[in-house]
Amino acid sequence: MTIAHLIDDDDAIRDALAWLLRSRGVASRAWSSAEAFLADYCGEMRGCIVLDIRMHNMSGPELFERMVELGCSMPIIFLTGHGDVPLAVNAIKRGAFDFIEKPFNDNELADRVIDALRIDAERSSQAASAATIEGRLAQLTSREREVMDLVLAGKFNKVIADELDIAMRTVEVHRARVFEKMGVRSAVELAQLLVGRAKTD
Amino acid sequence: MTIAHLIDDDDAIRDALAWLLRSRGVASRAWSSAEAFLADYCGEMRGCIVLDIRMHNMSGPELFERMVELGCSMPIIFLTGHGDVPLAVNAIKRGAFDFIEKPFNDNELADRVIDALRIDAERSSQAASAATIEGRLAQLTSREREVMDLVLAGKFNKVIADELDIAMRTVEVHRARVFEKMGVRSAVELAQLLVGRAKTD
DNA sequence: ACCGCCATTGTGGATATCCGCAAGCATGGG
DNA sequence: CCCATGCTTGCGGATATCCACAATGGCGGT
Fold it and tell me: What's the whole-number mean pLDDT along residues B196-200?
C-alpha cells in the first residue's frame, strides 16, 4: 500500500492535506506527533512522509534524524512556516526529498507528494532486487565467499588455489557452487550482478 | 592549482573573504560579476566557487545554471543575505555544495570552503581515472566494441561468433585487442573496470 | 602504386575452465 | 552412533580460452 504519511500537530493542516491528496487520488494516514508516528512505524512501510518542522516535543528534523537511523528510505517532504535556510539546506543535504514553505500552493504540494510516491515505488523495486541478491549471498558458505572474492578479482583458479593453499579442484567446486547459488553461469555475469558491492558484505 | 573562486559584486565582501581564506592557507581569486567570471572560465579550472546570490545583471543561480550547462564540476557555495528557502532548496537539489546565510561565521565558512576544496580534489582524481577509461574506450574500433559488449554480457566466443556471423578466431583476436587496449587481463577485470557504464558509450 | 589500419580466417598447441564420478575427513545435531 | 553439511582432493574428459605464426582483402591517405 503506497500512501502518504502525514505528521503534523495541527489538526486543520492534517485534514486539509488529507482532503487535498484524496482529491488527487492519493491515500493518506495522519499522525498528530512524531512520537505517535514512530510508535506505528515499521520498516515495511511504503509511500512518503509529509512532515511539519515545528511540533511539540520531537521536531521534524529530530524525527528525520531518527528515521535515518532506522534505515527508513521513504522520501520525506518537510513543511515549514518560518523559512529557516540552514535547516532546509541541512535537510536536503541529508537526503530529504523536499522542503516546502507554508503557506504552500496546493497543487504544487500534491505534485511533489505524487513525485515522492513515484520515487519510492522505484526505490522499492530496486531494493527488492537488491534484497534477492543479498539473500543469495547469505546462502554462501564463508569459504565460498572467499573464493568468490578472488574470482571477482579476476584471478585464475590456479592462483586462487595457491593463495588459499588448497587444491585447484577444490576451488573449482566452490566456484561452481557460487555460480549455482548466485544464479549465474559465468564469472562475468557474477561481476555484473555485484557491481558496486563491497567484498564479503 | 586548487583555489577558491570568489564571485561577488561587493568589494568589501570579496576582500574580507580573500583575507579570511588567506589566513587559513587557502589561495583565492576574485571576480566582481558573474559575467567577468564566465569570461575567464575554462573547463580545466579546479577548486571551488563562492558565489553571492544577488548580483547586478546575472544572479548567482543564473550563473549556477550556466555552469551546470558547461559541465563545471567545482563545488559551489552560495552566499545569501535574505534567506530564500526555495532558492536554497533548489540549489542544493541541483548539486550546489552549500548555501550559507550572511552574515556568516568566518570560521564556519572557511571550514566549508576547505571541505569543498577537498571534495573537488577527490572528484578530480576520480574524473581523471574516468577520463583514462574513456580514452581507452575511444581507442577501440567499432567491431571491437561490439565484441566487448557481448563479452560483457557473459557470452562465449562461440556464441559471439555466431551472433556476429564471423569465425570464432576473429572473435578471439578482437577480444584480445580489447583486453590489450583496455589494459586488463581477463573479462572479469574488464567488467570491474566498466561497472555502471552504458553499452558502447 | 605503396603503406598502414582494420577485419577476417586458419592451424596447432599450451592453458584454463567445467563437470561427473568417487571419496576421505571434521563438526555438530538427533 | 548415524547423518547432514561443509571442505577437501583426485581422475579424466569435454569445452573454452590464449596465443604465436601466417595470410587475404578492403579502404583511405601519400
Answer: 52
Report yes or no: B31 and B40 within 8 Å, Cβ to Cβ. Answer: yes
* Nearest-angstrom CA–CA distance, A159 and A180: 22
Q: How confident is the model at residue A102 (pLDDT cuts 50, 70, 90)?
A: confident
Segment B138-145 mean pLDDT: 90
Determine if strand D comes within 7 Å of the CB of B175. yes
**What's the CA gap between A120 and A102, in Å, rounded?**
24
Report yes or no on B152 lying in a domain: yes
- For residues A130 and A186, what is the distance between their CA atoms, to the nearest angstrom? 20
How many residue contacts between A and B have a Cβ separation below 8 Å?
Answer: 70
Grid cell of B74 as nine digits: 567545482
Q: Is the dihedral of CA B194, A151, B152, B168 positive or negative?
A: positive
Counting residues of chain A whose pLDDT is more than 90, the rounded percentage is: 70
User: Distance (Å, rounded) from C-alpha A168 to C-alpha A150?
Assistant: 13
Note the pLDDT of residue A194. 81
> Are B84 and B31 in a shared domain?
yes
In the chain, the amino acid numbered B3 is I
Q: And the C-alpha cell for A180?
A: 549455482
Strand order in the sheet with B76-80: B28-31, B2-7, B46-52, B76-80, B98-101
**What's the total number of domains in chain B?**
2
Q: Which of B93, B101, B151 sits opposite A86 (nearest CB)?
A: B101
Residue B199 located in a structural domain = no
Q: Residue B175 belongs to what domain range?
A: 140-193
Q: Determine the nucleotide nearest to A167 by Cα–C1' distance.
A: D9
**Do residues A118 and A169 share a domain?**
no
Q: Kindly determine whether residue A101 and residue B85, on different chains, have CB atoms separated by under 8 Å.
A: yes
Mean pLDDT, range A117-140, rounded to an integer = 91
- What is the side-by-side strand order in the sheet with A76-80? A28-31, A2-7, A46-52, A76-80, A98-101
Give the DSSP H or E segment for A51.
strand A46-52
Mean pLDDT of the region A90-113: 93
The predicted pLDDT at position A4 comes to 97
Is the model's pLDDT at B150 over the cut of 50? yes
Our measurement of the distance from residue A41's CA atom to the centroid of its chain's CA atoms, rounded to an integer in Å, reads 15
Least CB–CB distance from B88: residue in A89, A189, A196: A89
Q: CA angle, corner B194, sides to B192 and B196, nearest 5?
A: 105
**Quick one: pLDDT at residue B102?**
84
